[in-house]
Amino acid sequence: MDLSEVRKNIDRVDGEIRRLFVERMQLADQVACIKAQTEDKIYKPEREEIIIRKQTEGIEPKLVREYTALIKRIMEISRKYQYGRTMELRQCFPFSYTTQPVIIKKPAMVKEELYVCDTFSKDSVLTVDSYEEMGMRIREKKADGGMGIIEEVGVGVSDELHNLLLRENLYITDCRVQKDGKSRRKVATFIDRLVVLPSHNRVKVMFECPNHSGSISSILSMISDYGVNLTEIHSRPFRKEDSWNYMFFVEMNANIDTREIRALLYQLSQETMQFKILGSYACEGDF
C-alpha cells in the first residue's frame, strides 16, 4: 500500500468521524434542552471519569493516552456547545453589568502614586495611605472610585491592588499604559460596579483551578475554543488547607456584551473553583 492509498483511507475515516461528530452534537443539544428544564449541572467531572475508564477498556496500551485525550476533547467541545444553548434557553448569565458610562468625580489614590494621575484634577483626588484605606473610603462613598498602578510592565504586578479588587468587589473600567523613559506601567481606574461599553475590547478575570493534572491546560483550551486571544496571564500561589493552589489572573481580548463571551464567562464560572470578573475596558495596541 502506497501513501496515496493510505491518504484515501484517512479521508474515508475522517468523513466517518465528521458524520459521528454531527450526531454527537445533536445528542449534546438534546442533553442541553433537558438540563435547561431541570437546571441540572452541565459539568460533572465524576461522570466524565467513569466514561473515560469505560471507553478506554481494551484499548492498546500504547494508544490509551491518545484516546483519552480525544475523549476529553470531545466532552469539552460538547460542554462548550451545551453552555451556549443553556444561555439561549434559560437566559442565565450569572453576572450583572450596566452598559451606561459612569463618570468618576472623586477618585481615591495612595499618596505615593499620585504622580501617575493624569485623567483627573489632583485637587479632586482623595489621597489615602494604603489600598486597604482606599477600599474603606469607596465603601463609605467618600470616593466614587479608585486609581492605582496595577503593573510595572516586565517587572511585576501589584498584589495589593489585585487583593483590593477581589476583597471589595471592584471592577476596572479603564486601564492605560504610561511610559517613563524605558519603563512602562499600567494604571487602572476602578469602581464598584461592572460597566461594559461597545468600545471595550478587554476583559480581566480571576479564577482558581482545581488542583490536578491538566486543569489549567483544559481551561486555556476552553478559552481558545471560543476564539479568544489572551493578552495577559499571571498566577499567584496561596495556601489552601494542607496544600498549595494558584489563582490565575487573565486578560482577554473580548467584549462581555456578546453571546459568545457571556457563554465563555458562564462556563468558566461553572468549571473553576473560584471565579470573578475584575473589569471591562478599552485598550489600543499591546501592553
Q: What does the main sheet amount to?
A: 6 strands, mixed
Query: How many distinct helices?
Result: 7
- Topology as a string of helices (H) and strands (E): HHHEEHEEHEEEHEEHE
Overall shape: elongated
Describe the structure.
The chain has helices spanning 3-38, 45-56, 64-90, 131-139, 159-168, 215-225, 259-271; strands spanning 107-110, 126-128, 145-152, 156-157, 171-180, 183-191, 202-208, 229-240, 243-253, 274-281. The strands form two sheets. Strands 1, 2, 3, 4, 5 and 6 form a six-stranded mixed sheet that branches. It has a four-stranded antiparallel sheet with strand order 8-9-7-10, with helices on one face. It is built from seven helices and ten strands. The chain is elongated and about 80 Å long.
Key descriptive features of the protein:
287 residues, 41% helix, 7 helices, alpha+beta, four-stranded antiparallel β-sheet, six-stranded mixed β-sheet
Question: What's this model, at a glance?
Answer:
The protein has 287 residues and is of the alpha+beta class. Helix content is 41%, strand content 26%. It has 7 helices and 10 strands.
Topology:
Elements: H1 3-38, H2 45-56, H3 64-90, E1 107-110, E2 126-128, H4 131-139, E3 145-152, E4 156-157, H5 159-168, E5 171-180, E6 183-191, E7 202-208, H6 215-225, E8 229-240, E9 243-253, H7 259-271, E10 274-281
Parallel strand pairs: 1-2, 1-3
Antiparallel strand pairs: 3-4, 3-6, 5-6, 7-9, 7-10, 8-9
Helix pairs in contact: 1-3, 2-3, 3-7, 4-5
